[in-house]
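Here is an idea for our session: we take a single protein and study its fold together. Start from the sequence, derive the backbone structure tokens from it, and show both lines together. Once you have written the record down, we can walk along the chain together:
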Amino acid sequence: MHKKRIYSFFIFIIVLMQYSCTQIAPAPKVQNGEIDLSKYDLKTEKLIALDGEWDFYWDQLLTPEDFKFTSSIINQKKTFIVPNIWNSYKIRNHKIGSHGYATYRLKINTNDIGSHYALRINRLETAYKLWVNDSLMIQVGKLGMSKKKSIPKWLPTEIFFEIDTNVLDITIQISNFHHTKGGFSHRIFLGTPESVHLKSKQKVGFDTFLFGLLLIISLYHFGLYILRRKDKSTLFFGILSLSVAGHLFSSSELLIMQIFPNLSWRVLVSFTFISNYIRISALGLFFYKIFEEYFDRRLAFVIGAWAILFSFLSAVTTVNFFSSLLIYSHIFTGLLIIYIIYVLIKASFDGYNTGKRNSAIISLVAFFFLALTMLNDILYDRMIIQTTFLVPLGVFVFILFQSFMLSLSFSSALNSV
């Protein structure tokens, strides 16, 4: 019976992971600003990621008209690997940094005149305009050549258009003066309107599903804490679940923007960072309360102080400043993961406390899965790998394991009264 439950659980997790991941058709990479899709039937293929070498024009905001009448522009073009932020891009042996503006351009060769297609964009840093051939399709935020003249915005978008020629030119202007990341931070996908819209619905549905579950789990554990205030592990577990739900609500598909479409970008980014710091600290303090005899009390104090300091900075300083601290958050998180694994391994080999040993083994298995998703998100955020954010899924799996463990502990405590 137990084996069937375990198998069912892992099948459920595999289904969730498949549902959350983007299915991408094998296609040629963009090379030298061009991709040939004339041999692909986009109606039968999955989404195509437009990754590779786009034409790149730094310090220029060019429109499709400029490419028709200004031949000198061709001599100024460079290539840029998309997706990637432009911070480390070098011009004349100097890094251009995070602030500035540029134009990206891509030529797509197709063989589908008269067909309807769509693009899917999560977000670009931090304001942009996009043209398909000569038609301006969308503007997100306000482009500008300075901080005063630009307004940042994050907004996942779908762009629908008809192919009226065998050559599609995609022109994108991007400006950034408000964040430490500038440029093409996320992939752009091409597909039929049906496939693009379906993917968006799947992503929103998956995030909404996880958000609702995490919210319910957090309320449940807050209730457990009210019934038994001596056990603060349930309090930190509730905070962990709630903060992960909040972070999911303000990132990924930006569900919060569907409810508050006029929400300030500054408030959105601060909320995302603060919820991230709270979830990391709540995770560490949860393990501190569960395995207090193995966990250094001084480190627990450091975790709380770190979360308060970084959250305060995210609330009162500029996005440019507090987003530059993210690398230190990643380092702190990595060190905390290593220490928690050390504590769990140490508790797992404790031969004098069978209850703690069993709890540690369960926690170690659950935390190992969570640690892998946290590592994935750090590498994805640093644009070292191209996957997607998986921590919400990792926390959900972790919570299922830990909820079972806490329920057993809570029941045992009540029975001993």
